[in-house]
Amino acid sequence: MPDPASQPGQAEAFRGQPCIRLRAGNGDTALVALHGAQVLSWVSGGRERLYLSPNAVFDGQAAIRGGIPLCFPQFNQRGPLPKHGFARNLTWSADDAQAEASATRLALHLSDDERTRAWWPQAFAARVDVVLSAGRLRVDCTVRNTGAVAWDFTIALHSYLRVDDIAQVGLQGLDGCARWDAVQDARDTQQGPITFAGEYDSVFAAATAPLLLNDGAHRLEIAQSPALGQTVVWNPGAALCARLPDIPADGHAHMLCVEAAQIDTPVVLAPGATWSGGQCLRVP
Ligand code: TA6
Q: Any idea of the CA torsion for 150, 207, 164, 170, to the nearest 10 degrees?
């Protein structure tokens, strides 16, 4: 029997849900649930970098509050589908994890079936690649139109980043980017780093360079591919957090969502066409 710790990926149950634990050569790990193809944990340098609510629901149907949910084929309530689409509510299939030259890769798959067609009549094949290497986690999404008619979608990697104290956090790199403030329904241009005092929900035109999350003594670099043209920044603040059933009252203090998204203009896919985009988190 090979030593499980030497395998690139190992199946395990987490809160009753089937998951795969990925290991990088330097000891970093990631935990990926088949439900939603959702990364639930990323430990790099001995520190958990993602926020997973202790009150998250793990019933194999509800969206899991935390980690990196995938919103597809609809972002938020910008269309007739369930909020943030259905990809985060369904079980994906996974290939065996692969050890690459300096990374560990897990590919997960979802394609249309009776359940998805009841919500959305399109024929599709979606793939999520989780790529773990020393100090770095990349999540790439690929969507292919396997049908005979063109259709469109919106998409987001709704990453919940763990922070020690949201009141001390600064998010750098969106200075000069156009912003829609969803709380106030107002448009402006971001000036300087973003700080947080209460509910925050804004959609930015994505920056070309990586963002930098400053959380006390800790830093995280956040990059996204050009195919994802917006960045969403969300923290519910204390009042909204208290109304969310699946997060503790103080959960807002320990998370910040920085989401790589394509939502302002839907992606149109012709029959046979493929789209790819992703987000990369790095400990600098
Ligand atoms: O991406 C930000 C957002 O769209 C917020 O408006 C907020 O509703 C959040 O996502 C969480 O949505 P959820 O359905 O997961 O509670």
A: -150
Tokens of 113: 């079936």
> Strand, coil or helix: what is 33?
strand
Task: Please report the atom of ligand 1 found closest to the CA of residue 158.
Answer: 1
Output the ligand 1 site: residues, CB below 6 A: 63, 76, 83-84, 158, 201, 232, 234, 257, 259
User: In angstroms, what is the span from residue 138 Cα to ligand 1's centroid?
Assistant: 22
Question: What are the helix (H) ranges across the chain?
Answer: 114-119, 237-243
pLDDT at 7: 83
Q: What is the CATH number of domain 8-282?
A: 2.70.98.10
pTM of the full structure: 0.97
Separation between Cα atoms, residue 72 and residue 196, nearest integer Å: 27
The per-residue pLDDT for range 12-51, each reduced to its tens digit, is 999 999 999 999 999 999 999 999 999 999 999 999 999 9
User: Could you report the per-residue pLDDT of 40-64, keeping only the tens digit for each?
Assistant: 999 999 999 999 999 999 999 999 9
Domain boundaries, the chain: 8-282
The pair of three-digit structure tokens given for residue 14, joined into one six-digit string: 């987490």
Nearest CA to ligand 1 atom 9: 234
